[in-house]
């Protein structure tokens, strides 16, 4: 895990590959500034110690992994965010996992995650907070997500199929139509969910 704290700079421009790759098993977190182009295969987790934070990229950012943010509809600012000065794109079908730290969310609560639209951001699954989200990462000027329903997220019937010694496929039926779901992993099932690793997500079809 790489923690770029508020006021700190993580410089990847001096003799480093361009772009610098954040590994799939790595997490880049904090509210500081990253210099140099970044291809993020891992997890981006903007945050600050006592409040919400903005992780700033002074060059380009290509997202090929997942994003973890906290929100609070009564806060100012109301959520963690990512600011990019250079080019921004989403290069994968990752997930945005949302944790609500404040009052219960309401329909049309909106949280801008970026400072500009995220090209191909519609490919990402948005889930968490006990609500149903609509993905406006590409369509909105600020790469935002919005609450569309307070209906509790329906638990799906999960099917796990082994396809090798170290590989499985996951499938699910019976969940809510068009609801987002995430897959998290941990080496200990008794560990708090906040410490589990987000692997990815998917959005259910019309049949759930």
Structure description:
The protein has 208 residues and is mainly beta. It folds into two domains: 2-149, no CATH class; 157-203, no CATH class. It has no helices and 21 strands. It has strands at residues 2-4, 9-11, 20-22, 27-30, 33-35, 38-40, 43-46, 54-57, 61-63, 66-71, 81-84, 88-90, 95-100, 110-112, 125-128, 132-136, 144-149, 157-162, 168-173, 180-185, 197-203.
Order of helices and strands: EEEEEEEEEEEEEEEEEEEEE
How is the biggest beta sheet arranged? Answer: 6 strands, parallel
Beta-strand percent range: 35-45%
Helix amount: under 10%
The shape, in one word, is: globular
Mean pLDDT across residues: 90
Estimated structural class: mainly beta
Helix count, DSSP H or I runs of 4 or more residues: 0
User: How many angstroms does the end-to-end distance come to?
Assistant: 35 Å
In total, the number of strands is 21
Order the strands across the largest sheet as they lie in space: 1-4-7-10-13-15
**Low-confidence runs of at least 5 consecutive residues:** none
- What number of structural domains do the residues give? 2
Give Rg in angstroms: 17 Å
> Assembly state here?
single chain
Tag the structure with descriptive keywords.
about 210 residues, mainly beta, 2 domains, 4-stranded parallel sheet, globular
Explain the layout of strands and helices.
Elements: E1 2-4, E2 9-11, E3 20-22, E4 27-30, E5 33-35, E6 38-40, E7 43-46, E8 54-57, E9 61-63, E10 66-71, E11 81-84, E12 88-90, E13 95-100, E14 110-112, E15 125-128, E16 132-136, E17 144-149, E18 157-162, E19 168-173, E20 180-185, E21 197-203
Parallel strand pairs: 1-4, 2-5, 3-6, 4-7, 5-8, 6-9, 7-10, 8-11, 9-12, 10-13, 13-15
Antiparallel strand pairs: 14-17, 16-17, 18-19, 20-21
């Amino acid at each position: 895990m790489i923690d770029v704290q508020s006021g700190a700079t993580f410089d990847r421009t001096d003799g480093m590959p361009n772009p610098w790759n954040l590994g799939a098993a790595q997490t880049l977190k904090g509210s500081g500034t990253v210099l140099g182009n970044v291809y993020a295969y891992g997890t981006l987790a903007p945050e600050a110690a006592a409040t919400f934070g903005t992780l700033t990229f002074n060059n380009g950012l290509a997202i090929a992994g997942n994003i973890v943010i906290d929100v609070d509809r009564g806060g100012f600012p109301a959520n963690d965010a990512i600011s990019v000065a250079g080019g921004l794109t989403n290069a994968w079908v990752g997930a945005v996992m949302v944790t609500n730290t404040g009052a219960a969310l309401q329909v049309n609560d909106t949280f801008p995650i970026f400072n500009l639209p995220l090209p191909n951001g519609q490919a990402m699954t948005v889930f968490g907070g006990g609500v149903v989200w609509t993905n406006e990462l590409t369509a909105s000027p600020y790469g935002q997500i919005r609450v569309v329903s307070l209906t509790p997220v329906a638990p799906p019937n999960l099917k796990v199929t082994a396809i090798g010694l170290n590989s499985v496929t996951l499938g699910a039926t019976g969940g809510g139509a068009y609801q987002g779901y995430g897959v998290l992993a941990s080496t200990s099932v008794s560990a708090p969910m906040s410490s589990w690793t987000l692997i990815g997500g998917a959005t259910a079809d019309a049949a759930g």
